[in-house]
Structure formats: structure tokens, C-alpha cells
Amino acid sequence: MPKLCTSTLQDARMDAPPDTSTPGPRTRSKEREEVSFTLMSRVIDSNDPSTAQEALQSKAWKDAMDFEYQLVMKNNNWQLVDIPLGNKPIGCRWIFKTKYKENGTMDKYKARLVVKG
């Protein structure tokens, strides 16, 4: 047994009665600062498509996809190149989100083309 443990055990009084005292009741400060706040939440039933196939079923989502694609092409965000030997291409996917105004009315359908990984 290590010395620290041995000396601790030797120093303990085995014949002393266990401590049965309990602390007094907890008291709280009588002075409280009143704080008021308002919580707001909005539940919106959004049925945003999870795949491009679902989105293509709706003209509004197809228009949003066309708009995003035109922006990608206009801004030269990608360039089509041959895949170098030994490399794999990185995939992409569509993300769909319905955007709302502050008053809760629908603002627009937003489609984003993003890179996987």
C-alpha cells in the first residue's frame, strides 16, 4: 500500500462516532430582481423537397433551381475539366428551403447547389 494511503488510514479515528449532524434549512435571499421577457416562436409547416426529383415536380421549385444554376454559370463558379488519373470526382446536391418574411408570409423558394463532402 502506498505511504499516503497508509498514513491516511492510520490517522483516521475508527472509534469516533459517525457525523450525524445535518445542515440547517436552506434560505433564499429575500431581495429579488424582477425580470420580464417574452418568448416568441413560430411554427411553420414547411414541406421543402429533400431531393431534386421531388423539387422538379413543382414549377416554383424548378424555377428556383433554374435561377440558381444561371447564377452559378454567370459567376463562373465551376469549370468542367477532365478527371485526373487516380482521382474521383466530388458530387453535388441540391438544398431546398422556403424563405419567409418577418411577418410570416412566404417570401421565395430558395434552391442551392452545393458540393458534397
TrEMBL record:
Signal peptide: none annotated. Residues 75-117 form the Reverse transcriptase Ty1/copia-type domain. InterPro entries: RVT_2 (IPR013103). Residues 1-10 have a biased composition (Polar residues). Residues 1-34 are annotated as: Disordered. It holds the Pfam family RVT_2. It comes from the Eukaryota. This is Reverse transcriptase Ty1/copia-type domain-containing protein.
